[in-house]
Task: structure prediction
Amino acid sequence: MKKIEAYIRPEKLEEIKAVLDDHHLNGMSILQVMGCGNQKGWKEFVRGNEIDYNFVQKIKIELVLLDEQVDEVVQSIIDKSYTGEYGDGKIFIYDVNDAIRIRTSEHGDAAIK
Result:
C-alpha cells in the first residue's frame, strides 16, 4: 500500500475529484492548506505599505492506494493538475505498513477496498 499526498491548485479540485471517482477510489481526505515554493506568492500595497504574501492557498489530497493503482492514479492527477506555470503543485508517495478498518478490524488491503 502507498499513501499519496498531492498538493494542487484550488481551482483543479473538481477535476481531480472526478478523476479519483473514475478510478473507483472510495476514500480520500481533502484539506485546505497554505504554503510556499517556487510560486513565491504575491505582493500587495495596503495603506501605502507593501505586504509580501509568500504563502498561497493549495488543496492537499491524501489517499491510500493499492500498489497496483499508484502509477495510474498519480499520472491522472498530474494530467489534470498541469498548467505549465509555477504553483501546479507536488505529489509525495509514502509506503504504508498497514491499514485497519476500525468497524470490522480488517487489516491490509481489505481495509482500504
Q: What stands out?
A: The chain has one domain: 2-112. The longest helix spans residues 70-81. Residues 2-112 form a domain with the Alpha-Beta Plaits fold (CATH 3.30.70.120). The chain has a mean pLDDT of 90.
